[in-house]
Amino acid sequence: MKRTFIILTTVTALLFASCSKNSSNSDGNPNGASKVQFVLTDAPAPYDAVNINIKEINIIMNGKSGDSVVNYPLAPQLTGPVNLLTLKNGGSMYMGDPFSLPAGSISQIRLVLGDGNTIVTGGVTHDLTTPSAQESGLKINFHQTLEPNGIYKIWLDFDVARSIVKAGNSGKYLLKPVIRANTEAATFGAIRGTVLPSVAGTTVYLLNGADTIGSTLPEKAGSTFGEGYYKFINLAPGTYSLSFNATDSTKYMDSTVNNIAVTSGTVTNVTTVTLHQ
């Protein structure tokens, strides 16, 4: 069974932030300010590399006298392009340190990209066109009230496979971001396991009922994580299924594992799945 995703031409990503309140203001916020921290992660795609140059994160705050724009200070490792595919299977990168903001409401987040965005496929590097992101930023609607002394961790999860489109006969690659977001990992669960052999070219789909929640490409032979390793993070408690779909040309049969229970703050290990021809 193969699955086809439909990509909307206009993408609006809804984010959620996790908030844990401190009983005292021991972190040095005498005015009851909130703290936010951005974390970058990725759903993988069948490319060699996807290099994104993140220039700015702008937070749009609502106030009585109108909106204000706050620039989130980025970590030093974001001064150059980041290969999103290094963040697959549960990998992540802190985009900066926790940053104090006045208690109030956020209405939007804008992710501004710089020059030098590229995609590598088949060993060939192509420019990745992102005109709207470079000019005004990727606008992410985000309606979250920051409570005094709250600590919020905001995950930006790129679904690279659905975010990159090859434009007709021009051969150009366009970035039309599909971003999945969830609360801080400690309040959610995860699923991990292994599917073999890697020559089957398997794509692993995560399902909740009839809904496809996400997908991943298992690690290849020689990976430090181990051949066939996969992981899904930031999962709400519930019961999930995994669909293991081999590439048709390999002649391997697909497989499914049902009734996988996920609870908060734990990692659910799935028995190794071996596909057969």
What does this molecule look like?
It contains two helices and 24 strands. Mean pLDDT is 80; it is low at 1-30. Strand 10 and strand 11 form a beta hairpin. The strands form five sheets. Strands 1, 2, 7, 8, 13 and 16 form a six-stranded mixed β-sheet that branches. The protein has helices at 131-135, 160-163; strands at 18-21, 34-43, 49-52, 54-62, 68-72, 82-83, 92-94, 99-101, 104-113, 118-121, 124-129, 138-146, 150-159, 164-167, 172-175, 179-180, 189-196, 203-208, 211-216, 229-235, 238-245, 255-262, 267-269, 273-274. By secondary structure, it is mainly β.
Describe this structure in a few short sentences.
With 277 residues, the protein is mainly beta. Helices cover 3% and strands 49% of the residues. Strands 1, 2, 7, 8, 13 and 16 form a six-stranded mixed sheet that branches. It has a six-stranded mixed sheet with strand order 6-3-10-11-15-14.
Beta strands, count: 24
Q: Given the C-alpha coordinates, what overall shape results?
A: globular
What is the beta-strand fraction? over 45%
Helix and strand element order: EEEEEEEEEEEHEEHEEEEEEEEEEE
Radius of gyration: 20 Å
Distance between the termini: 15 Å
Largest sheet: 6 strands, mixed
- Give the fraction of residues assigned to helices: under 10%
Total helical elements: 2
> Helices and strands: which structural class?
mainly beta
Compute the average pLDDT: 80
Low-confidence segments, ≥5 residues, pLDDT <50? 1-30
